[in-house]
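Below is one such protein, fold included:
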Amino acid sequence: MHLITRADDELYGVASAAGKLGWAPKLLARLADARRAAPADPGAAARYAFALMAALPSLGVEFEAHARFTDTIDALGQALRLDPDNWLARYSRARLRALIPSSYGAYSVQASGELSLAQADLELLLARQGGLPAQAYFVSTHALAAVVDHLAGTPPADGRPPLLDVLAACPRTPVGLPALGAVLCEPLATMHAGAVGPERQAIGEVMAVLYGEQPAVVAALSRQSVW
């Protein structure tokens, strides 16, 4: 399986900064040209898709934002057709399917189909990463799967280990991805906000070690428990 590389993290950081500064169109155009010049190159497809995702936060929640979510999901799908074992592309597609705006202006979309597709991506990713040497960020797949199940109103898939067991087995090593860590910590921070007792404590301990430098984690851990 093609796991996250330092180059992936650096590209995501550059594209995210470009989105905030208004430079994303130029960067995306350059990556799109490279994609068209090498249509069979999985690396070019993945770089373009990751840059599209990084630029999404600069958009408002409106019709254009929904269209860009859809375009990015499609781009990630193209990357996966060329390289089905790209961990970050599959995780990212599931993430965006869970995040896709459910309404914008006078328009609305049915999100249930997207959630089902996200669940399928995550189950495949869980199965494939389960046969690899443990990576600390693999716990984010389990957390995102739990979040998507909650959004879909469905129970965990048969055979999936309890989250507390996954947290206990997670390597206590900083992930060290300053840009992509902001994406990977999201489901843990979301679960921490709604968890109680030992589960909340376990989630907090793991995300503090793995993603402790991320603002979302710092904010989550600084809040007093409301339970």
